Amino acid sequence: MPVLPVEPVATPRPQHIRLVVDHRRGQGSADRQQPGAGDRRERVRALLEKVAECTDPQELKALRDQVVLECRGVASAVAARYRGRGVDRNDLEQLANLGLVKAVRRWQPGRSEDFLQFAVPTIAGEIKRYFRDHSAAVRPPRRIQELRAALTSSEDERPVGSADDDGHAADGRSDDARRAEELGVSEAAIREAREAVRLCRPISLDAQSGWGCPIADTWGSEDERITQIEDRMTVQVLMRSLSPREREIVRMRFVEGMSQARIGECIGVSQMQVSRLLRSITSKLYQELAS
Q1: Region of poorest pLDDT, from 75-84, 140-149, 187-196
Q2: What is the number of helices (H) and of strands (E) in the chain?
Q3: Which domain holds residue 66?
Q4: If you placed Cys at 4, which of 67, 97, 115, 224 could pair as Cys (CB 3.0 to 4.6 Å)?
């Protein structure tokens, strides 16, 4: 599907949004935002009437594309409601456009008096599904997700200057207390939802750390000496099964790096005997390790 051009649209008039969004009222506000909304509705209605009667696939596609272009401003208005929640604005616009395309394809004559009464919930549903399934790196419980969405919507409605820098309103109540009363939950739940918003936003590894370097540069790597310590401790236990003479042969061969001939000179045996002794020692060590 071709990517639709994005038409900048002003943020719609805030609605009083609680846990359930009133899509029909939101659709009305989106209409009022658009100049010539009545003319557009008439054009869309006429196009959809042609869609219902069209039998030619190419013409049907062209008519549906025209409906999408007529209504993309409404899609932008719906997308604007979800800004500031951790998803890029352009991604929101494309999700809204995708929902609009799906609404046009699913539209059936007689389903609703106004196409937008069907399209707006479809667009919002597409965006909400993305938030539910993809937007958060850490997904909190559903209860927290719903409260977080309601809290964000409630804060979008807050009048400018309604709270001071400390988050207190003119009546002295904290912002959390007012939001809790508006949404019908406890202040503790509001604080939990705010914390969930903070914790669910992933931080880029390229972001600066407190040490003046990217976070990725502060990550530790596996120290090879840790593995060496484990190996040494294992060998120390195994060496206890050897006689003092065998331990000395192991030390000269594997610690000092002496040749078999040199070891033979030190302990008074031939190089061939040293070779047999080493095979016997290593076999004993393997058996101890396996047991």
Answers
A1: 140-149
A2: 12, 0
A3: 23-135
A4: 97
